[in-house]
Amino acid sequence: MPSFQSTKNTMAKFFMNYFSFFFFLYRLVFKPSKNPKAFHRTASNIHANEGKLYHKYPSFAHRANLSKDQTLLLFNVEDALLKSPSLFSYFMLVAFEAGGLLRAFVLILSYPLLRLVGEDMGLKIMVFVCFFGVKTKSFRVGSAVLPKFFLEDVAVETLEVLKKGGKKVGFSNVPRVMIESFLRDYLDIDFVVGREVKVFRGYFLGVMEDKKQSNAALETIIGSQGLGICDVIGISGFKGSLQYHLSSHCKEIYLVRKADKRSWQRIRRDEYLKPLIFHDGRLAFMPTPLATLAMFMWLPFGITLSIIRAISGILLPYRLSIPILAYTGFRLSLSPNPSLQSSNTRKTRGRLYVCNHKTLLDPLYLSFSLQKDLTAVTYSLSRVSELLAPIKTVRLARDRDQDSKMMEKMLNKGDLVVCPEGTTCREPYLLRFSPLFAEMSDDIVPVAMDCHVSMFYGTTAGGLKCLDPLFFIMNPRPSYNVRVLDGVYGLSSFLGGGERSRFDVANHVQSEIGKALGFGCTRLTRRDKYLILAGNEGIVNKC
User: Fold this and answer.
1) FRET label pair with 274: which of 19, 138, 180, 427, CA 20 to 30 Å apart?
2) Among the listed residues 416, 414, 433, 437, the one whose alpha carbon sits nearest the alpha carbon of residue 425
3) Residue 287 in contact with residue 89, Cβ under 8 Å?
4) Domain boundaries, the chain
5) 71-263 in CATH: which number?
6) What is one term from the GO cellular component aspect held by the record (predicted)?
7) Please, are residues 532 and 144 in contact by the beta-carbon 8 Å criterion?
8) Which CATH class name applies to 289-534?
9) Tens of pLDDT along 445-467?
10) What is the pTM (predicted TM-score) of this model?
11) CA 178 from chain center: how many Å?
């Protein structure tokens, strides 16, 4: 494809020349003004002149547990909680998820300018690019997208400090709508202080309120919560350590140096104070400037590749489509069950495959793996996805009697696949399994499904579901792992009998799939997911 290669080379040269020019200008203008010795002299003077007030941050780790009632802990989110030295990636998430591809492209083009101007002005530019014209009512990036990336950037050292006790106040220079849900819902922070973004008739203006207002809010919290408290402790970086609201109220202030942050370790998933089960958004990577640039350079090729993959999967037979998908970078692994294959005798009814739900493509890749035609029953599927599906799909009405009759009819015609969670879950957890499938067949085969992506998630709660398969197959090397487990008996053959047996069967299948994948089993439902991520009870955005 010479025309595509020529376009790709032209784009690469444009970006390299663009960024090289601005980085050269940045070094030319700012290199003479940098004076590391002056910085260290300033820090030394702080410790020398205010030795009783200011301390180096590592010494805080040796303090005993803090009293919940007698300690007020103030910490700066950017300087004392997150390991990353830059906020660009978080604003890129806001630009891409709330504003779309064009807004994200404008932000990456402005990155050299952000390096040229001061930190304060750079923050204002990012806020304007990301928030201007965004509808406040539909803005859910702060609660649905950012918490995952913030959690992955939290330092172990700071988390241990927060566990010591005391009332906790997190303050930041970034907009409050970006950090509040993360701090309150996942770190149990009592008070959150951030800058407000101005709003006009339900739309963000992209301009933040003056710092004095957030400082005044912090003063109010300290004043109301500080009564009767013995210790008011502040944790901040050198840049913000001399702010009035810290130096005038805190008994002790611990200063975080850049060297301290470089030695910090990010927390692991099992160290989260609360498990992260649901999150939304399309980007599956931390969009640093270099990673974002790579994404934009990949997009033209990725879109072309996704079309090739889609045509191959929809139009070609299995013996042709599977090798083509593998050649384009798609990895599909199957762990078959020999006992099921040996007992695959001729039956009057079809076999019922029960899968956990990772993406809308689960039934399709099970069909590819088994190389047999299946009928998929779905709870929610866009019209476009339904029309383009290469296997037969049947929509359930969420009415038990009606749905059971439909499934019974389909089983009489052939093999059936169902995802009883009713919705997808990206993280290593299983949602509650609807027990309807337990009444339909005595030949139930659990199937453990897992998938991996590196650039785009193939699921969404607040976006257009018809684009889910496109985003998934647009990844450079997406992979699917299909593991067929031992069959289980349905309701009529399940030991114990009674009305509760269908729930026992559903819980047993969920447990077997969870053990096979190493996933945690929860009692959360589709309704819980959509209330958290989209603010509704599962309305599908059709397209």
Assistant:
1) 138
2) 433
3) yes
4) 71-263, 289-534
5) 3.40.50
6) membrane
7) yes
8) alpha beta
9) 999 999 999 999 999 998 888 89
10) 0.86
11) 14
